[in-house]
Amino acid sequence: MIRFVLDASVALAWCFEDEIAADGLLSLMISAEALVPSIWPVEIGNALLVAERRRRITATAAARHLALLGSLNIQIAPAPSLAWIGDLLPLARRRNLALYDACYLSLASREHIPLATIDAALGRAARLEGVTVLKA
Question: Does some domain include residue 136?
Fold first, then answer.
């Protein structure tokens, strides 16, 4: 079974038709396990809420998307400590990333597994850090 870190950008692309296609990675989820940082559920929930507020989706559609994501083999990594956040800051600075993006990259690096992202800046940073990036 393949394991990889799943960036919210990919999961959200599965929810919105007008996003960059990531269907190949969704198909991979049939036989894969995705690992996400503890911030992932909040990041997903916030994106769905913002989409609702912008009338991009309905509350019913948001619930359907949450059900889809909940049906997949996605494991949530333990919450980071403040010490770990201190370790993330140099990575975020070095690669010009937001701290939450550095969480995904750090998790993939620590677990020695690929990162699935459609975020171009995060993908570049991952490659520079020696982390394999899965193609959408």
Answer: no
List the Cα angle 104/82/91 in 5-degree steps. Answer: 40
Q: What percent of the chain has pLDDT over 70?
A: 99
Is 112 part of a structural domain of the chain? yes
The domain in which residue 6 lies consists of: 2-131
Tens digits of per-residue pLDDT, 88-118? 999 999 999 999 999 999 999 999 999 999 9
**Phi and psi for 54 in degrees, rounded to 5?**
-90, 5
Number of structural domains the chain divides into: 1
Which tokens in the block code for residue 47?
Answer: 């994106």
Domain with residue 24: its CATH number is: 3.40.50.1010
pLDDT value at position 91? Answer: 96
